[in-house]
Amino acid sequence: MSAYVYILFNKPYGELSIGVTSNLLLHMHELKNQISKINEKEFLTNKLAYYEKYKELEDAIIRKKLLEDMTKEDLISLINSDNPNWEDMHDKILKIWDDSLKSNNIDQTT
Known about the structure:
Blueprint: E1 3-9, E2 16-21, H1 24-33, H2 40-44, E3 47-54, H3 57-68, H4 72-82, H5 90-103
Antiparallel strand pairs: 1-2, 1-3
């Protein structure tokens, strides 16, 4: 089972929130629509700045703990290395999912 470590933000260089999930697309959907009992801080920081994918949940949890020990400046540097314009990567993961469905000829309407 895959797992993801992610960093959320409210505005560039603003508040950051680090988390882990087994389904990044669903988690982001829940955040964007505030339809889950998710940590209130995540509702306030509901833009996806950065994520990493892991094969095992345990590895993602270990990485999350390492990220939580980093300074905000180090986290900002990590985000800037992958997402220098601080775009909400939610649209990117939606496109990856959509492209994956299309390449596998999966009907999204059923």
